[in-house]
Design goal:
Chain A is mostly helical and about 110 residues long. The radius of gyration of chain A is 13 Å and the shape is globular. In chain A, about 30% of the residues are buried. Chain A has a two-stranded antiparallel sheet. Chain A has helices at about 25-35, 45-60, 65-75, 85-90, 95-100; strands at about 1-5, 10-15. With about 120 residues, chain B is an alpha/beta fold. Chain B has a single domain (about 5-115), classed as Hypothetical Protein Ychn, Chain: A, CATH 3.40.1260. Chain B has four helices and five strands. In chain B, helix 2 links the parallel strand 2 (about 35-40) and strand 3 (about 75-80). Chain C has one domain: DsrEFH-like (Hypothetical Protein Ychn, Chain: A), CATH 3.40.1260. Chain C has about 90 residues and is of the alpha/beta class. A five-stranded parallel β-sheet of chain C has the order 4-3-2-1-5. Chain C is built from four helices and five strands. Chain C has helices at about 15-25, 45, 55-60, 75-85, and strands at about 5, 30, 50-55, 70-75, 85-90. The chains are: A mainly alpha (about 110), B alpha/beta (about 120), C alpha/beta (about 90). Chains in contact: A-B, B-C. The interface between B and C is medium-sized, with 20 and 14 residues. Chain B: Pfam families: DsrE (PF02635). Chain B: InterPro entries: DsrEFH-like (IPR027396), Sulphur_relay_DsrE/F-like (IPR003787), Sulphur_relay_TusC/DsrF (IPR017462).
Chain lengths: ~110, ~120, ~90
């Protein structure tokens, strides 16, 4: 079992590094998970992570790349809701990596 | 041009895996830009009933998932009006009601059909 | 486009055949297999004027008599039929 240690807390991760319990998530957790991916979270990242958590709360599922782009365009406008912006932020795999950092399960329809 | 696919979902939401599987096929197809349609028929129209509570039976919220169809590029969502009337359900806002003749034509229009 | 509808449930306990008949087009055909073979006892199937096929072995196993308005076939015939129609809709 993979684990993630933050201060005195030890959190369970699945084999792909996603949080097992969604309730374990916090901004600290996101920062540590991002560091493991050699990523430093900026305001642009946080905006997408929050958006993604909103998506999950609304639809109870984690979007694949296309719906993520569509949803981002809908909520933040086309200058952010495009594959270039999202790929740049999340090392080329926005749906998978953003979901991981947002504490969500692996996207179900990402084959 | 990829082949178009119609998925007919005709099982009630909490009776087994069929409703979930039908939706998964549609969402996966939509995410890959496949021309895809979804028709609710028979007990499948119960998936469209309002105010369901998936948590009461420890299930994932299928109704919430259905609201994401548009974002997954699935705009052709239909419901069998005969099945709705038979079950005393109002016409749902999220699906276009079709009578039997219209469903015959719908099936005709798609290259492939999967009925679950 | 023509569709071959495959029904494998008895119409006397299940709504598949009834629903199928409701939405069948005039060019379509119905193939009965498994307990679907009991559908030959169902008068509604005949009145629609559709082509009806039944898998011979499933019919024999159940001692269902072949009426003059239906045809029986083996698995090779089933495969040929799947090719002859534009698509196959299996009522799972």
């Amino acid at each position: 079992m993979n684990t993630l240690t933050i201060g005195s807390r030890t959190l369970e991760l699945d084999k792909d590094g996603y949080l097992v319990d969604l309730n374990d998530w916090s901004t600290d957790v996101a920062n540590v998970l991002a560091a493991a991916e050699t990523l430093e979270l900026t305001a642009d990242h946080w905006e997408i992570l929050e958006l993604l958590r909103g998506f999950y709360a609304e639809f109870q599922l984690c979007p694949a790349t296309r719906p993520l782009i569509k949803y981002t365009a809908l909520k933040l406008g086309p200058e952010k809701g495009n594959s270039l912006h999202l790929n740049k932020l999340f090392n080329g795999t926005p749906a998978k990596l953003a979901a991981k950092l947002a504490g969500l399960p692996r996207p179900t329809n990402c084959l | 041009m990829s082949k178009s696919l119609l998925v007919i979902s005709r099982q009630a939401p909490w009776s087994g895996p069929s409703a979930r599987e039908a939706l998964d096929i549609v969402l996966a197809g939509g995410a890959f830009d496949l021309p895809i349609g979804l028709l609710f028929m028979d007990d499948g129209v119960f998936q469209l009933a309002p105010h369901q509570d998936a948590k009461a039976v420890q299930q994932k919220d299928l109704s919430a998932n259905l609201q994401a169809l548009g974002l997954f590029g699935v705009d052709d969502v239909f419901a069998c009006s005969h099945s709705l009337a038979e079950r005393g359900l109002a016409t749902p806002g999220s699906a276009e009601p079709l009578d039997s003749d219209a469903i015959t034509q719908l099936i005709d229009r798609y290259d492939q059909v999967i009925t679950l | 486009m023509s569709t071959l509808h495959v029904v494998s449930h008895s119409p006397f306990t299940d709504s598949r055949l009834a629903s199928c008949l409701r939405v069948c087009g005039t060019e379509d055909a119905i193939l009965l297999c498994g307990d679907g073979a009991y559908g030959l006892h169902n008068a509604a199937l005949h009145t629609k004027g559709l082509k009806v096929f039944v898998l011979a072995e499933d019919m024999q196993a159940r001692n269902v008599t072949l009426p003059d308005w239906a045809d029986s076939l083996d698995y090779a015939g089933f495969v040929q039929l799947s090719i002859d129609y534009d698509k196959v809709n299996t009522w799972l």
